[in-house]
User: Which sequence fits this backbone?
């Protein structure tokens, strides 16, 4: 993939400018060192690197060897990383020395202890050292590695709705197809430039079309570790960025930044947003502040299916809908509670089957039996309706998660942890509306008799248990009882409504 673009500029990161031929050399050299260390096809590696060049080198080196990176986020802590090792039996761990203000050595030692099968740990600096060190194997050794195109090439993480995270195996064939199809509808040209602001390991900036799609077309990729407008705007100006991939929360932040008018943002042609619904009004505002840009919404999922609004859709379709599938062979069904297809234009749950959508989560047959129909459709838990244009409109969701600025948090995972607090009798976590992040998490807690609990006490307890910070509840409501549905389940829709009313009355 890199060889055909020679001396063109591929990657700009931390002030360094790397051409395609140099990128190929670095990736090959790292792959040879990994081969020497015994890395073999289908080995699993937990990769926890932020938007740094070492991520790019390692990701493509593992691809070259047919090994399977598991895409952890920099914000994950013991609770998540330990679960990925347990689920995958990974033999490698690549982690940045610093994860924000957290020293990753606090994770490495206990992970090593708990997982004796872990053979290799690489920090970002050791990745650089390997690349600069001479390698004894000849480069044609790489051509002898046989990669089966139908085997997984990556495991993405599911937003998940149960207590345990889920791993999504994506195969070489499906992920390459995913990348190519996304770069076609995203109008990526060889002279274009993508600025990666979102966490690079996420499916969106990695392959929708993301860095993979931009490299595929011989275009340029610029990485930034900071999401602040004060860093992002000057980068756009200096590097003549043409494409941005954002979640709504970031776009809303940028267009409300007073300094936006001091910058020349005219190079930006396409702003993709996904992960959460984007209001038409925000799209209009963004297009007036980025004078040459079109906002193109993406409805995507780590599980596969990608819908994109087309850049030449009429404005009202572009503003009102979340797009349509990128592939003619994506089969979409919208069904009602009795599992019958809804009438055209009615709201139903989105079911999907198609060439690049997963056939099952890794190692969880019972969960798969519930989440897929017998004929292989994935039940997404998203509620949608078909727009007369043929595009789709997102109308909500049935799944029990909180969508915090595009980051999905399983309510059940957090509830299970909160239940282990000695002062807690019962708990239900629900989304509360937020103007920028879309949603934040609120925990409704019934304390044990004679006990009480504050939000700081609760978050300190969860942090001590190694929960990622972005998953902490941001509001606590103490209550004597939780409303129940007629089946005896906690009626979360009642709680969500109560909370929204309470916030509106006293924000
Ligand atoms: C992306 O992937 P995930 O796996 O983090 O989340 C998938 C879920 C969808 O099932 C849906 O609930 C929600 O995120 N979602 C949207 C949306 N795009 C995703 N909800 C409303 N409007 C949208 N435009 O989030 C993702 C993966 C690839 C590309 C873009 C986003």
Assistant:
């Amino acid at each position: 993939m890199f060889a055909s673009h020679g001396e063109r500029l591929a990657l700009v990161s931390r002030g360094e400018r790397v051409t395609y031929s140099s990128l190929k050399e670095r990736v090959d050299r790292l792959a040879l060192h990994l081969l020497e260390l015994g890395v073999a096809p289908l080995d699993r590696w937990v990769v926890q690197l932020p938007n740094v060049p070492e991520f790019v080198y390692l990701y493509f080196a593992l691809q070259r060897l047919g090994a399977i990176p598991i895409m952890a986020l920099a914000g994950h802590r013991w609770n998540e990383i330990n679960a990925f090792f347990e689920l995958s039996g990974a033999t490698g761990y690549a982690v940045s020395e610093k994860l924000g203000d957290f020293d990753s050595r606090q994770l490495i030692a206990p992970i090593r202890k708990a997982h004796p099968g872990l053979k290799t740990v690489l920090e970002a600096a050791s990745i650089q050292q390997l690349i600069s060190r001479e390698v004894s194997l000849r480069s044609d050794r790489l051509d002898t590695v046989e990669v089966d195109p139908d085997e997984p090439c990556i495991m993405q993480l599911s937003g998940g709705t149960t207590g345990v995270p889920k791993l999504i195996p994506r195969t070489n064939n499906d992920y390459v197809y995913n990348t190519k199809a996304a770069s076609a509808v995203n109008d990526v040209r060889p002279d274009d430039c993508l600025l990666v602001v979102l966490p690079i390991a996420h499916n969106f900036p990695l392959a929708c079309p993301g860095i993979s799609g931009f490299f595929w077309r011989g275009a340029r990729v610029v990485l930034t570790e900071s999401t602040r407008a004060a860093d992002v705007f000057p980068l756009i100006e200096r590097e003549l960025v043409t494409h941005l991939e954002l979640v709504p929360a970031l776009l809303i932040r940028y267009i409300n930044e007073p300094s936006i008018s001091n910058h020349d943002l005219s190079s930006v042609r396409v702003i993709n947003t996904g992960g959460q619904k984007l209001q038409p009004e925000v799209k209009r505002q963004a297009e007036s502040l980025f004078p040459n840009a079109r906002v193109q919404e993406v409805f995507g999922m780590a599980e596969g299916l990608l819908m994109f609004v087309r850049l030449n859709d009429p404005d009202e379709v572009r503003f009102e809908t979340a797009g349509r599938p990128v592939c003619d062979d994506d089969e979409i069904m919208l069904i009602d509670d009795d599992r019958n297809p809804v009438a055209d234009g009615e709201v139903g749950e989105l079911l999907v089957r198609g060439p690049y959508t997963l056939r099952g989560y890794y190692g969880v047959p019972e969960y798969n039996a519930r989440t897929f129909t017998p004929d292989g459709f994935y039940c997404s838990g998203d509620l949608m309706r078909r727009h007369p244009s043929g595009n789709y409109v997102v109308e909500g969701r049935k799944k029990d998660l909180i969508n915090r600025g595009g980051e999905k948090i399983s309510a059940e995972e957090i509830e299970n942890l909160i239940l282990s607090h000695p002062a807690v009798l019962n708990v239900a976590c629900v989304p509360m509306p937020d103007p920028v992040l879309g949603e934040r998490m609120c925990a409704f807690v019934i304390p044990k008799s004679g006990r009480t609990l504050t939000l700081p006490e609760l978050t300190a307890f969860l942090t001590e248990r190694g929960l990622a910070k972005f998953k902490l509840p941001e509001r606590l409501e103490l209550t004597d009882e939780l409303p129940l549905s007629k089946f005896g389940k906690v009626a979360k829709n009642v709680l969500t409504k109560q909370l929204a009313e309470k916030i509106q009355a006293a924000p």
Q: What stands out?
A: Residues 159, 203-204, 208, 274-277, 297-302, 322, 380, 382, 394, 397, 406, 408 surround OOB (CB under 6 Å). The mean pLDDT is 96. The chain has three domains: 1-147, 188-399, 401-505.
